[in-house]
Specification:
single chain; 461 residues; mainly alpha; 19 helices; 78% helix; 0% strand; disordered C terminus; ion transport; MFS_trans_sf; MOT2/MFSD5
Length: 461
């Protein structure tokens, strides 16, 4: 079955190369040299930040197991990470709007470097602190950098459509190429140089430190609403008002939570789905194949976003339906394909079919990221961008914690079926967002924000 892996990887590599090389003027957005310099500077930092994240991913579970911890203890460490992202990360990430997005990005680097350092200790309490720090860093990674980029883009007077160029390139590089190279580099450190499972975390800290140096030396600061009379609680209330008063923002948050919740659940499920009878599968190579599929998706998204005739709200309905269908494959194969009777061995025929379906899902993930970034830049008010984006992650983190806690309580087919339903619901909500997206933005956000400001002196009195 090794030939199958190479055929899938080689086939997708050829398609990605063909898509990139065949781009014409219709598939490219004409930009200025000043913007290209700004874009490349951001992409360098974003790629370094993602390298720091991707280097750790494949070795977290493995490192904990080498320290002698069982599945239950490791599960609690993972839950602590997502719980930290939900609680502390929401607070720290929301401070970016007030204290500055550049400072928040530097805080991400420092927090994640400290998390990497804790991996040198086999003490459970120290590792727990590391997971809490990692959860905070994750919230900053997925809010502060995008918030800084959008604000800086508009502050410099660049065309709003050019944002989609940066978004699609960031996903192509950061979530595709960098992920593949990080996996190969981590494998080189651990298996080839025999430096141990903690070495990828040391390498991640180095990349994060380099990225932090670039941020400190070249980025300017920008803010959401820097009003001195606004405390954190007022920011939270303002963000809640924005979500409650604008159906478009609420729909966007629900869509994001449904898709990302399904995506993170998939991360935990794909390994047992492909090896239900302890089949010997090349995890690293399959991971690289999935990342290549994500690159394929981001390349498709770049073409779609470059063409003004296709609205992001329209094509994402189709993407969610396709992703929903892709995650039904494990359910269908469990009924239609007889299970293997022998333990071990190579991947089964059902596993091969599932890999193809999972590649389709990963391609949808590649389309999703730049597209959701584009929609967030359109619908989320600048004053509370980081705060609202972190609010969106609260239901996501709750969902992932529940899944992790009950991962052994339900059959794997039930979990995939649940994800498929969530993705289909996301397509319905996306259809609603497309229908109301043409309407002018509501003014209630500004009106209610002003009202909250006026009420503050009364509350203090």
């Amino acid at each position: 079955m090794e030939l199958f892996y190479y055929l899938v990887f080689g086939g997708m590599s050829a398609v990605v190369a063909a898509l990139e090389l065949s781009k014409n003027n219709k598939d490219r957005i004409s930009t200025s040299s000043a913007f290209n310099s700004f874009k490349n500077s951001y992409l360098l930092v974003y790629s370094l930040m993602m390298a720091g994240d991707w280097l750790q991913g494949p070795y977290v579970y493995y490192l904990y197991s080498t320290y002698g911890f069982g599945k239950g203890d490791i599960g609690q460490l993972f839950i602590a990470g997502f719980g930290s992202s939900m609680l502390f990360g929401t607070i720290v990430g929301s401070l970016a709007d007030k204290t500055g997005r550049k400072r928040a990005c530097v805080t991400y680097c420092i927090t994640y470097i400290l998390s990497c350092i804790t991996k040198h200790s086999p003490q459970y309490k120290v590792l727990m602190v590391g997971r809490i720090l990692g959860g905070i860093a994750t919230s900053l990674l997925f809010s502060a950098f995008e918030s800084w980029l959008v604000a800086e883009h508009f502050k410099r007077g660049y065309d709003p459509q050019w944002l989609s160029v940066t978004f699609s390139k960031a996903i192509f590089l950061g979530n595709g190429l960098v992920a593949i190279l990080s996996g190969l580099f981590g494998n080189l450190l651990v298996d080839t140089f025999n430096l141990g499972p903690v070495s990828p975390f040391d390498a991640a800290a180095v990349f994060l430190a380099i990225g932090m140096a670039v941020i400190l030396s070249s980025w300017t600061e920008n803010y959401g609403d820097p009003s001195e009379n606004k405390d954190l609680l007022t920011q939270f209330k303002g963000a809640a008002v924005a979500i409650a008063s604008d159906e478009k923002i609420a729909l966007l948050g629900a869509i994001q939570s449904l898709f990302e919740g399904s995506m993170y659940t998939f991360v935990f499920l794909w390994t047992p789905a492909l090896s239900p009878n302890d089949e010997d599968i090349p995890h690293g190579f399959i991971f690289a194949t999935f990342m290549l599929a994500s690159m394929l998706g981001s390349s498709i998204a770049a073409r779609l976003l470059a063409r003004g005739t296709v609205k992001v709200e329209s094509y994402m309905q189709i993407v969610f339906v396709i992703s929903s269908a892709a995650l039904t494959l494990p359910v269908l194969t469990s009924f239609l394909v007889p299970p293997a009777k022998v333990k071990g061995g190579g991947i089964s025929f059902a596993g091969c079919l599932q890999i193809l379906g999972f590649c389709v899902f990963e391609a949808c993930v590649g389309i999703f990221w730049p597209s959701i970034m584009k929609m967030r830049s359109q619908y989320i008010p600048e004053e509370a961008r980081s705060t609202i984006m972190n609010f969106f992650r609260i239901p996501l983190n709750i969902f992932v914690c529940i899944v992790l806690y009950n991962v052994n309580a339900f059959p794997i087919t039930v979990m995939f079926g649940m994800c498929s339903i969530f993705l289909f619901v996301a397509s319905i909500l996306q259809r609603r967002l497309s229908a109301i997206g043409e309407k002018p933005k509501t003014e209630e956000w500004n009106m209610l924000r002003e009202k909250n400001t006026e009420d503050e002196p009364l509350n203090e009195a």
